[in-house]
Backbone:
């Protein structure tokens, strides 16, 4: 027997030393204030170790400062066990209460010397214990740890196991009950419930409402989510969203295309620019060369022109001088002067002859005949000289004519050469120009033919055709592969369905067997539960209680149904034991039947085990089916998904390819149309150019013809001019020759006349013999005139010289000057015309080069401007966003510029954004219909914001494509079944205890009636009612649903189309929703066993009846109140004591009561017996000691030396 056997107080409070035995009822007597309560509190402290629940008032000294004042203050509890004794020592350390255990009964020598001096230090005590080989525990400084050790709750600390008074985890009920008796605390139905429940099992049974709440918190939302998903309107929204998603793919394709166009154009521009710049450089060089050539030609032309102009100027000056000189010499009557000057020799001769004649005439001595002969000879000589002179002049004129004719020939030969030279360049230029234009015409005709046969934008058209062909081939290939994949999908689905159907049939057959077994076991369970429930009122219970050997007699012949009948009212009769309704039967050979409550419970346990086994097998079937479905899904779904994804992607690609084909066909037609238009424009231009060339050729032909005719006419004019001039020279020569001939004839005649005159004079002189004075005067006058003429000639000789020079240099060359000037002017005109033509050609080339250069520079500027726009816009958000659509880039001009492409990018992105916004709105509205943590695991609106519509849409698409709703429904069904089974099973486990509680209550009531020794209290009775907790009510209904539908749970489909089954399932869902609401209202997180019952009790004392109440506060007088509460607590403590420690039951407890004197001695006696009959020892105190014989130990307390308390043992039955 384990019990608190003794308490030893050393320097405790005002008690120097006391050793108090507690193995039986113990009373402490003494006047007020002597220390009775002090001792009783030390005893209570052993059980509750709670300084705040010892009845010490706040204003009183703290426990440690009162009971353990000094370092040598000790409280020692000696506990007896079946193996010996151990002690618990309380001592003071650091102003705290600390505990130690040691393995021995108490001996004084452990704590004090032989002289009675108490050890001041624990080391001294340890030394004694160690010396005697007594085990000592470590220090315990925590009240909870201490209680855990005393009550055996410290299962994991084996070194303290030997110090257990009992073993229970629910020990709080023990010390609180003992504590309530000491403090005379109120008793409530909840306290009674807790004590009874704690007595049933050391493990507290409860339902964790937080776990239930966790199971249920999203059950309704998830169910609503699944229902919401299957609504037609939401299915339609999802389909519309998927259409928008496909449209987004189309926009993506456009963006991929735009990326390709944009960056292809960039690449094309970057490819084109170097070539353009090279061309521009070449053209620029050509332009410079042409400019230099034009400048050089202009400079050369200027020099040539200057030379010709200079010549013309010289010729013009010469002509001007010629005209001035002619005018001057005409004014000087140069021909007369020249004639007179030319007569000088003849005049000189004449003068000489005249002077000679005069001399002869005046000579006296000369013979007349001689004289006249001489004069005649002189005349004849003069005539001869004159003729010679004139003949010489004629000869000179002839020579001059010949010279003039030769000079004229040379002049005109030179002039013709000049004409040929002058016209040769022009002719060559015209012919070259004609040839060039003729070549241009041929080239232009070739260009026209080439243009007619040329395919414009050939590379673009070929590229589009290649893309078209590639798309067609890809589409055809994909279409065949899609068809093949769809056939494969259908084949996989058929195989999947076939395998699943085979397995399902096997499962259905096995389930039918299990359902049959389950129904049989359920019926057996109901029968057994019914028998157990009414067991206390059955014949079997009566026989078990009042006829111990019943199984050896009546048990061998009685029907089992009779044993469990509850309306037989059995009685024990005085008759032979072997009598059976007056018939004696020898039952020795009949095998006895063993029936008992424990056997029924064992059978029920076995049945429940079988039911659980069936459920487990059913669950295993479900799990097997699920596993099979999962395995089949793992086997087939990835293949199907892969094929579906391929089909979907391929169909989408085919759709895109068709659209792309349409676009490419339109583009092809656009390129062709563009090419045809450009061809027509070029042909129009080429034909226009050809027509211009033909007109130019006709004009050049006309120019050549006109030129040749002009050259011919020029030559003819010059020939006529030459003939005219030559004739003029001949005419002048003839006139002069005739004049000279005439002069000769005249002179001859004159000489003849003079000779005749001389003859006449001679005759006259001969006849008159004297000189003729008139003749002399005539001679004198002639001499004078001739001298005057010679003076005149002398005076004008220089003028004639100058005239001859000027005539030779200017006047005779006037026509030459004129021809030369005409020639030079013509040459100048030809030079200017030729230069103008060549300059026009150069300028045309220069202009063409400049235009080409301008166009190329314009293209360069445009391209560079485009690239600058691209560079400026490169960091544009839209173009950065376009990087996501990067694709293969080739160098392609394209139809659109960067600016146009940029605008199109913006427009496409706007379309994309519009589509995204549309999809976002649809998805947001759609997702908003579901809870945040939806069982569907749909993205939240926040995820929609963060991850975007495309990712969200694809996840939803994948959800639909993989038919994940079926799996979710299955899991949810399993969860539903699991929740129902868990709730039902746990509720059943919890409610099973109510039967035991009912048995305990009946036992308490019976125990009171059988063992009540207090006459003042005639009845203390408890009763059990249904719980008023709404959660319990719902759980009971869930349990009923589980039992009624147990065979189908785990298979039942919450989403079935079966109306009856659906109605049942939905009712169960309503129960779960209601349970969730009630749990939400609950302020506690646990549903205890105490919540499943409602206990009431009533007290009958001294003729008073409290009626069925929930709380005992004040019953009757103060003494009666103490008595009733003590009795009720003793009853409850007894109940707990009997059921609390499962391993061993041999232990005793104490109740501690202060001021027992408030009770009448008769009631005290009855109370002591009431407790002792239940193996509970009573410790109490009062000023007066009564009922001495009812106590095993009586101690009397006295004050010594004013404040010390001495404890003396008065009586001890030991």
Residues:
């Amino acid at each position: 027997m384990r019990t608190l056997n003794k308490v030893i107080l050393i320097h405790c409070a005002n008690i120097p030393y006391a050793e108090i035995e507690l193995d039986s009822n113990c009373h402490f007597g003494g006047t007020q204030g002597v220390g009775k309560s002090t001792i009783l509190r030390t005893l209570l402290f052993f059980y509750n170790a709670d300084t705040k629940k010892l009845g010490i008032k706040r204003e009183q000294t703290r426990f440690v400062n009162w009971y353990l004042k000094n370092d040598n203050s000790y409280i020692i509890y000696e506990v007896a066990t079946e193996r010996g004794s151990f002690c618990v020592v309380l001592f003071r350390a650091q102003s705290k209460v600390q505990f130690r255990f040691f393995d021995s009964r108490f001996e004084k020598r452990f704590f004090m010397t032989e002289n009675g001096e108490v050890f001041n230090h624990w080391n001294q005590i340890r030394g004694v214990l160690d010396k005697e080989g007594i085990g000592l525990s470590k220090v315990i400084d925590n009240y909870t740890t201490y209680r855990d050790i005393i009550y055996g709750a410290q299962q994991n600390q084996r070194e303290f196991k030997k110090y257990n008074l009992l073993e229970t985890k629910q020990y709080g009920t023990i010390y609180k009950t003992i504590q309530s008796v000491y403090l005379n605390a109120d008793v409530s139905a909840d306290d009674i419930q807790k004590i009874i429940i704690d007595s049933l099992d050391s493990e507290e049974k409860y339902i964790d409402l937080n776990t239930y709440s966790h199971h249920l918190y999203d059950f309704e939302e998830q169910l609503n989510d699944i229902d919401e998903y299957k609504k037609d309107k939401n299915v339609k929204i999802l389909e519309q969203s998927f259409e928008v998603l496909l449209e987004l793919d189309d926009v993506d394709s456009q963006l991929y295309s735009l990326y390709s166009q944009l960056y292809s154009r960039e690449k094309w521009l970057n490819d084109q620019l170097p070539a353009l710049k090279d061309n521009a450089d070449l053209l620029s060089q050509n332009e410079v060369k042409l400019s230099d050539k034009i400048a050089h030609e202009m400079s050369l032309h200027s020099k040539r022109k200057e030379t010709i102009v200079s010549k013309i100027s010289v010729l013009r000056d010469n002509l001007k001088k010629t005209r001035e000189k002619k005018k001057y010499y005409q004014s000087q009557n140069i021909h007369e002067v020249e004639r007179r000057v030319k007569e000088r020799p003849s005049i000189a001769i004449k003068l000489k002859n005249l002077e000679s004649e005069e001399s002869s005439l005046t000579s006296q001595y000369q013979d007349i005949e001689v004289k006249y002969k001489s004069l005649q000879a002189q005349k004849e000589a003069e005539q001869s000289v004159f003729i010679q002179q004139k003949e010489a002049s004629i000869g000179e004129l002839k020579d001059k004519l010949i010279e003039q004719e030769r000079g004229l020939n040379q002049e005109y030969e030179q002039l013709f050469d000049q004409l040929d030279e002058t016209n040769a360049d022009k002719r060559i230029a015209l012919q070259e120009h004609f040839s060039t234009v003729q070549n241009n015409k041929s080239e232009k005709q070739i260009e026209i033919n080439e243009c007619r046969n040329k395919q414009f934008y050939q590379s673009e058209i070929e590229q589009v055709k290649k893309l078209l062909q590639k798309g067609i081939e890809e589409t055809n290939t994909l279409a065949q592969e899609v068809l093949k994949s769809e056939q494969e999908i259908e084949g996989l689905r058929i195989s999947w369905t076939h395998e699943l159907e085979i397995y399902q049939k096997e499962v259905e057959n096995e389930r039918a067997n299990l359902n049959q077994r389950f129904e049989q076991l359920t019926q057996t369970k109901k029968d057994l539960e019914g028998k157990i429930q009414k067991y206390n009122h059955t014949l079997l219970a009566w026989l078990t209680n009042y006829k111990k050997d019943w199984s050896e007699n009546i048990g061998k012949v009685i029907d089992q149904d009779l044993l469990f009948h509850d309306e037989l009212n059995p009685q024990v009769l005085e008759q032979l034991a072997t009598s059976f309704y007056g018939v004696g039967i020898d039952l020795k050979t009949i095998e006895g039947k063993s029936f008992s409550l424990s056997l029924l419970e064992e059978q029920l346990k076995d049945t429940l085990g079988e039911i659980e086994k069936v459920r487990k097998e059913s669950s295993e079937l479900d799990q097997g089916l699920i596993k099979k479905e999962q395995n089949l899904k793992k086997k087939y779904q990835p293949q199907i998904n892969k094929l579906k994804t391929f089909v979907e992607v391929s169909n989408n690609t085919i759709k895109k390819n068709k659209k792309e084909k349409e676009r490419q066909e339109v583009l092809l037609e656009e390129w062709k149309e563009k090419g045809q238009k450009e061809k027509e424009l070029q042909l129009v231009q080429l034909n226009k150019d050809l027509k211009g060339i033909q007109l130019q050729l006709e004009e050049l032909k006309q120019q050549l013809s006109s030129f040749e005719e002009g050259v011919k006419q020029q030559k003819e004019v010059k020939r006529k001019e030459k003939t005219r001039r030559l004739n003029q020279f001949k005419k002048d020569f003839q006139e002069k020759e005739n004049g000279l001939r005439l002069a000769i004839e005249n002179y001859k005649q004159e000489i003849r006349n003079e000779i005749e005159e001389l003859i006449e004079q001679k005759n006259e002189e001969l006849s008159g013999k004297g000189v003729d004075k008139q003749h002399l005067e005539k001679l004198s006058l002639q001499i004078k005139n001739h001298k005057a003429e010679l003076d005149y000639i002398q005076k004008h000789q220089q003028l004639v010289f100058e005239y001859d020079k000027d005539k030779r240099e200017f006047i005779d060359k006037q026509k030459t000057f004129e021809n030369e000037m005409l020639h030079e002017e013509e040459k100048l005109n030809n030079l200017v015309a030729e230069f103008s033509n060549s300059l026009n050609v150069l300028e045309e080339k220069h202009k063409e080069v400049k235009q080409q250069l301008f166009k190329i520079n314009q293209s360069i500027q445009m391209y560079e401007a485009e690239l600058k726009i691209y560079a400026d816009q490169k960091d544009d958000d839209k173009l950065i966003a376009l990087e996501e659509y990067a694709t293969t880039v080739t160098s392609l001009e394209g139809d659109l510029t960067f600016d146009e492409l940029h605008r199109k990018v913006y427009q496409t992105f706007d379309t994309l954004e519009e589509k995204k916004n549309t999809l976002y709105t649809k998805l947001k509205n759609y997702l908003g219909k579901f809870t945040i943590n939806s069982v569907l695991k749909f993205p939240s609106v926040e995820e929609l914001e963060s991850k975007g519509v495309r990712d969200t849409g694809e996840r939803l698409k994948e959800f639909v494509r993989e038919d994940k709703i079926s799996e979710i429904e299955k899991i949810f069904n399993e969860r539903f079944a699991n929740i129902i089974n868990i709730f039902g099973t746990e509720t059943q486990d919890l409610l099973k205890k109510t039967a035991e509680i009912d048995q305990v209550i009946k036992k308490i009531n019976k125990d009171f009636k059988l063992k009540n020794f207090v006459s003042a209290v005639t009845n203390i009775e408890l009763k059990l009612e249904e719980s008023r907790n709404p959660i319990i009510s719902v759980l009971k209904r869930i349990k009923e649903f589980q039992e009624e539908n147990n065979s189908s749970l785990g298979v039942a489909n919450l989403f079935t189309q079966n109306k009856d089954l659906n109605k049942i399932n939905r009712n169960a869902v309503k129960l779960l929703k209601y349970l969730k609401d009630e749990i939400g209202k609950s302020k506690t997180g646990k549903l205890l066993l105490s919540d499943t019952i409602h206990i009431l009790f009533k007290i009958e004392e001294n003729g008073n009846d409290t009626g069925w109440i929930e709380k005992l506060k004040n019953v009757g007088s103060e003494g009666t109140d103490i008595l009733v509460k003590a009795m009720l607590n003793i009853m409850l403590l007894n109940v707990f004591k009997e059921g609390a420690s499962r391993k061993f039951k041999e232990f005793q407890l104490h109740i501690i009561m202060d001021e027992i004197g408030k009770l009448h001695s008769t009631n005290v006696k009855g109370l002591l017996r009431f407790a002792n009959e239940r193996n509970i020892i009573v410790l109490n105190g009062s000023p007066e000691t009564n009922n001495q014989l009812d106590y095993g130990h009586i101690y009397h307390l006295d004050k010594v030396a004013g404040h010390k308390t001495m404890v003396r043992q008065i009586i001890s039955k030991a």
Remarks:
- The longest strand covers residues 3-12.
- The chain has 26 helices and 19 strands.
- The two ends are 16 Å apart (CA to CA).
- Residues 3-186+1113-1212 form a domain with the Rossmann fold fold (CATH 3.40.50).
